[in-house]
């Protein structure tokens, strides 16, 4: 994301001009824009004109509109952001208060104005515009007959391909058919890897599966690479890493990312930091339950006692339509940091973020035990 200008006053009001440069920037924009904000960008509008003879014709014209956002739609697969709202500035083609849908596009400037910029939103801009990009990661999660090719960026996990091939059972008299079905499956996965993984950007590719499927696929892939003299694969062989998982479905990616060898390999990515923090929370919850809590009520009580060492929050909480509730979470973040605690905001498009959402979206590891919070839970039960 490129920052063109930033005009924010001391009381938090102001506007920011940004240019999204890659698909992930649309996810940052989705987290920045809230209902009630105003967004200015160029768009195409269908305009009807009537001639002196009474005949009408319609033309598509490019114009610049400013709308007050009422509805936000984010397409995770296409990484496209659509904003619907009323026009709030004079325009020769669009009447005041007429509805229009803006589609934010790559390499096209947009200006976002908020009545109040909070610290979480301003940090999101700093993170999005950071020129030092985290190491990107790709993963192939598979078992016989099914596979997913995923891209894991610093903010989200994207499904890029799903391969589903029926493989005949391996039994007497059908071994040849089984081998043929398996080869077809491996070939489809290989084509998906070549099509969807950019080896110039991706620094590590995980191949995850139960049993020996990952090993067999890895051998097949480089056998084909040698036969076809595929230099891209041969030159990047060191980037592949074989990891055990309990199944070939996407949810098993969380297990793979917790593998110590994998964490070491991708230690400089945001995804690894999130996975490690969540794993620490689960371990603490099992071994010292009076130092690990989740749920807004308990976390606020722990914060009053300045007991929070690490606060885990889902970015979904900052997209809520209730402005009062959003301000409470922003205040919680500021308060924990003021008392010397660490705050980790999880992306809800990451596997770890999905796990945190199942725990109400807010959790914390405390500096010291607070058994009285456990008693509160028992009373509620």
Automatic annotation (TrEMBL):
eRF1/Pelota-like N-terminal domain segment(s): 1-130
Pfam assignment, any one: eRF1_2
Cofactor: a divalent metal cation
SUPFAM superfamilies per record: Dom34/Pelota N-terminal domain-like (SSF159065), L30e-like (SSF55315), Translational machinery components (SSF53137)
Keywords for this protein: Cytoplasm, Metal-binding
A GO term for molecular function: metal ion binding
Main location: cytoplasm
GO cellular component: cytoplasm
Domain of life per record: Eukaryota
GO biological-process terms attached to the record: nonfunctional rRNA decay; nuclear-transcribed mRNA catabolic process, no-go decay; nuclear-transcribed mRNA catabolic process, non-stop decay; ribosome disassembly; RNA surveillance
Compartmental location: Cytoplasm
Record's keyword annotation contains Cytoplasm: yes
Family from the record: Belongs to the eukaryotic release factor 1 family. Pelota subfamily.
PANTHER family documented for this protein: PELOTA, PROTEIN PELOTA HOMOLOG
Entry function: Component of the Pelota-HBS1L complex, a complex that recognizes stalled ribosomes and triggers the No-Go Decay (NGD) pathway. In the Pelota-HBS1L complex, pelo recognizes ribosomes stalled at the 3' end of an mRNA and engages stalled ribosomes by destabilizing mRNA in the mRNA channel.
UniProt name for this protein: Protein pelota homolog
């Amino acid at each position: 994301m490129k920052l063109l200008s930033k005009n924010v006053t001391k009381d938090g009001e102001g506007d920011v001009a940004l240019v999204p440069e890659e698909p992930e920037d649309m996810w940052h924009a989705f987290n920045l824009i809230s209902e009630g904000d105003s967004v200015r960008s160029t768009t195409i509008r269908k305009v009807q004109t009537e001639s002196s003879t009474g005949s009408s014709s319609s033309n598509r014209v490019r114009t610049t509109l400013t709308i007050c956002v009422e509805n936000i739609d984010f397409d995770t697969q296409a990484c496209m952001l659509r904003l619907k709202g009323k026009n709030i500035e004079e325009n020769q083609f669009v009447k005041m208060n007429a509805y229009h849908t803006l589609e934010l596009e790559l390499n096209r400037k947009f200006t976002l104005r908020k009545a109040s910029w909070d610290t979480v939103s301003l940090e999101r801009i700093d993170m999005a515009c950071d020129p030092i990009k985290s190491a990107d990661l790709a993963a192939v999660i598979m078992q016989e007959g099914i596979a997913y090719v995923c891209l894991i960026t610093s903010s989200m996990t994207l499904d890029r391909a799903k391969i589903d091939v029926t493989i005949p059972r391996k039994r007497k008299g059908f071994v040849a058919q089984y081998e043929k079905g398996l080869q077809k499956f491996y070939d489809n996965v290989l084509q998906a890897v070549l099509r969807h993984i950019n080896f110039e950007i991706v620094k590590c590719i995980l191949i995850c599966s139960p049993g020996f499927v990952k090993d067999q696929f890895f051998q097949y892939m480089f056998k084909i690479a040698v036969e076809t003299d595929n230099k891209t694969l041969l030159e990047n062989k060191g980037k592949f890493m074989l990891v055990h998982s309990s199944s070939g479905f996407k949810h098993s990616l969380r297990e793979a990312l917790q593998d110590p060898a994998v964490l070491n390999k991708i230690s400089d990515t945001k995804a690894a930091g999130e996975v490690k923090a969540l794993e620490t929370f689960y371990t603490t919850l099992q071994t010292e339950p009076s130092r690990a809590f989740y749920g807004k009520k308990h976390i606020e009580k722990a914060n009053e006692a300045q007991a929070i060492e690490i606060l885990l929050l889902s970015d979904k909480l900052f997209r809520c339509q209730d402005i009062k509730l959003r301000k409470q979470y922003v205040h919680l973040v500021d308060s924990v940091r003021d008392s010397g605690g660490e705050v980790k905001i999880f992306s809800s498009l990451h596997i770890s973020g999905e796990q945190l959402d199942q725990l109400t979206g807010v959790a914390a590891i405390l500096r010291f035990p607070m058994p009285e919070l456990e008693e509160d839970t028992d009373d509620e039960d």
